[in-house]
Design a protein that fits this description.
The complex is a heterotrimer of chains A (about 400), B (about 180) and C (about 100). Chain A has about 400 residues and is an alpha/beta fold. Chain A has 2 domains: about 240 residues, Rossmann fold; about 140 residues, Rossmann fold. Helix content of chain A is about 40%, strand content about 15%. Chain C has a domain of about 60 residues: Alpha-Beta Plaits (2-Layer Sandwich), CATH 3.30.70. The longest helix of chain C has 5 residues. Classes of the chains: A alpha/beta (about 400), B alpha/beta (about 180), C alpha+beta (about 100). Chains A and B meet through strand 1, strand 8 and helix 10 of A and helix 1 and strand 2 of B.
Chain lengths: ~400, ~180, ~100
């Protein structure tokens, strides 16, 4: 196989170059490990005049996202990026961005939450922000991260959507790896992504009010309208991903599957762990066993139809989470899948495994062990256990 | 797929080495990954960096536990830790050392050894004992996974006005590395 | 608003609940909240405009003759004008 059109580049730098290709007009971000290289490179691109954007320096993530809302309200294509505690410091503003329908694009280099302090990867940060009304995409590798920025910018600004998007990439595991990336040509991106034509902008010549309050008579309708936009955005996302595939030759879908046709047992997972799971599946195949992988690329809005289709008829569903449940019955991805299974009447034994927390390295062999353990289970409910999930590799 | 684990100390350029190697391998038309052992940067502390080079797309997102090759950037690391941990049988040790290749071979029987006094080369060519670009030359000689042409291009792109000195160090190591 | 807010259906709202009619707050007449209203004694008024400046609802306006009056469609009767009027030209009275 040849790799000639690809360039070896660190994923954070590649993602920033993708932001440049999208001609973002305003950027406000506060540096935090492991997102730092993204912000550093963007500030260089702006300083060197390669990207004609306003780079708004601020003193915190709360201010960064606030500045982004201001820029977006003024009609600028707006980008930000953060990680971990930075995302949580933005938390209050996340809801305002989605409620005001600002199509801000944010790259989240996923990192564990303190305490104890950890700069390493897991999905704890984004899971704490999963219901903030943002569209959320999870990337498997660097190429997906680069392409997802372009795709996200396009559908975020679609008049049928007008919602902010988080593009999640695993901190360090993706953000700090040099790997082969194919960059689309500027002309192709320009053709795919017309300049942002906002529905409303703050302008002195045409006064309007953004962020007014809603009395109880109106709040339900206002939030229902926003929820509808989020739910219906999935159709637009599918459409834009389809168009991207046709134009750039790299196909993306909101839910993707690997080796699912033959397999009765499937993994469900998100992010860079998918690659390790696929390697484990290949290894299982060489041992005469079949397993599949269902990749959730779009986590919000939750792609229930697509998942129900690919999961129907499966006998065992192994759900992988990369975040602590925080007192919930299961990990966050499992909770969605078990809810889906009940609603759609999927007759499968479900199991939930949590691993890769706070940068704990995950190897393909872990998924072979998980597969074997799942095959031995006779029901979804584990009677003797206090919890219905298992933390893989915890020393007891 | 060839998996290489670099052993160095913070500030010696282990991460830069794997980045240059990965970029060069990709320029050669191969698939590659180069990444640090993620964490805070601590000058002087033993650090790891990882390199995978393959003819096929790489579907792996984990550290390297059983490398085909280790590159030891600093001779003192042999006393501080065991860099050969997990090294595959008949794997290759590419080492910066004042000792002879045979002496290293005697210390680690069963492994292939590629030895170069990289500090001495780096002092001559760069004026400072930073051995990473030198050791890349030794790695190319020992493994042939990356072309010298791509390597020189990557060094040129990375180091700008300091590139030629680093290329000289890299070339000298390529020529002078002793493999047994 | 073109109609009372409790009559709006969700799909009739602008994206992000943007209010795109400038000055639409003027449709909302707050005068009915009032218990007392300000009355000016023009013989004491020196036309300094402190009442106009302090009115939190911008309900005080200057008449052609230079004296001041409250627009009773909007004046909530808070009494700030009377409190701030240092020549004591304003009295709050029932109504």
């Amino acid at each position: 196989m040849n790799n000639k059109n690809k360039k070896g580049i660190e994923v954070s730098i590649a993602l920033s170059e993708s932001v440049k290709l999208c001609r973002f007009e305003a950027i406000s971000a506060y540096p935090i490990t492991p997102q730092t290289h993204i912000v550093e490179h963007l500030s260089e691109l702006v300083a060197e005049g390669e990207l004609a954007a306003e780079f708004i320096t601020i003193e915190s993530e709360h201010s960064a996202l606030s500045a982004c809302i201001g820029a977006s309200a003024a009609g600028a294509r707006t980008f930000t990026s953060t990680s971990s505690q930075g995302l949580e410091l933005m938390h209050e503003i996340l809801f305002i961005a989605s409620g005001l329908r600002m199509p801000i694009v944010m790259a989240v280099a996923n990192r564990a939450l303190s305490a104890p302090l950890s700069i390493w990867n897991d999905h704890g940060d984004v899971m704490a922000a999963r219901d903030a009304g943002w569209i959320q995409i999870f990337c498997e590798n660097g190429q997906e991260a680069v392409d997802s920025i372009i795709i996200a910018t396009r559908f975020a600004e679609d008049r049928r959507v007008l919602l902010p998007v988080m593009v999640n990439l695993d901190g360090f595991i993706l953000s700090h790896v040099v790997e082969p990336i194919e960059f689309p040509a500027q002309e192709s991106v320009d053709a795919f992504l017309p300049s942002y034509d906002p529905l409303y902008t703050l302008h002195p010549d045409r006064p309007l009010t953004m962020g007014a309050y809603a009395l109880p008579e109106l709040y339900t309708e206002a939030r229902y309208a926003q929820e509808n936009a989020l739910i219906n955005s999935k159709d637009v996302i599918n459409e834009v991903m389809g168009e991207f595939g046709k134009k750039f030759g790299r196909e993306y879908r909101v839910v993707e599957s690997y080796n699912c046709e033959k397999a009765d047992t499937v993994f469900v997972a998100m992010g860079s762990m998918n690659e390790n799971i696929m390697t484990a599946i290949d290894e299982l195949k060489s041992r005469g066993k079949e397993a599949g992988l269902v990749k959730i690329r779009l986590f919000r809005p939750f792609p229930s139809e697509e998942l129900a289709e690919v999961l129907s008829g499966k006998k065992r569903i192994i759900v992988i989470d990369r975040a602590m449940p925080g007192g919930a019955m299961n990990g966050p991805v499992f909770s969605e899948i078990s809810s889906l299974a009940k609603i759609r009447g999927l007759d499968a034994i479900l199991s939930n495994f949590i691993l890769g927390l706070g940068g704990r390295d995950v190897v393909p062999e872990a998924f072979i062990d998980i597969y074997n353990e799942s095959m031995a289970r006779t029901s979804t409910f584990v009677k003797a256990a206090k919890t219905n999930y298992r933390i893989v590799g915890v020393r007891e | 797929m060839i998996e290489v684990r670099f052993h160095g100390r913070g500030g010696q350029g282990a991460v830069t080495s794997v980045e240059i190697c990965a970029v060069s391998a990709i320029d050669d038309g191969k698939f590659a990954q180069g990444f640090p052992s993620f964490g805070p940067e601590r000058r002087g502390a033993p650090v790891l960096a990882f390199l995978r080079v393959s003819e096929k797309p790489i579907k792996l997102r984990s550290r390297i536990y059983e490398p085909d090759v280790i590159v030891v950037l600093d001779p003192s690391l042999l006393a501080a830790e065991n860099p050969t941990l997990g090294l595959k049988k008949s794997g290759t040790i590419v080492i910066n050392t004042g000792k002879s290749a045979q002496e290293i071979k005697n210390m680690f029987p069963g492994f292939r050894v590629a030895a170069i006094d990289a500090y001495s080369v780096a002092r001559d060519e760069l004026g400072i004992p930073i051995a990473n670009t030198t050791m890349i030359g030794a790695l190319v000689k020992a493994t042939d996974i990356i072309s010298m042409k791509s390597m020189e291009d990557s060094i040129t792109e990375r180091f700008g006005r300091l590139a030629q000195k680093n290329i000289n160090a890299c070339r000298r190591a390529y020529n002078e590395t002793v493999i047994i | 608003m073109a109609k009372p807010m409790e009559q709006y259906k969700w799909h009739e709202l602008n994206a992000g609940c943007v209010i795109d009619e400038p000055g639409s707050a003027s449709e909302y007449k707050t005068g009915s909240w009032r218990v007392q209203k300000p009355v000016w004694d023009d013989s004491k008024c020196i036309k300094c405009g402190v009442c106009w400046m302090f009115c939190p609802d911008a309900a005080i306006y200057q008449k052609k003759d230079g004296y001041f009056e409250a627009n009773l469609d909007y004046c909530k009767g808070c009494g700030i004008c009377a409190r701030e009027c240092w020549p004591c030209a304003i009295t709050m009275v029932e109504g």
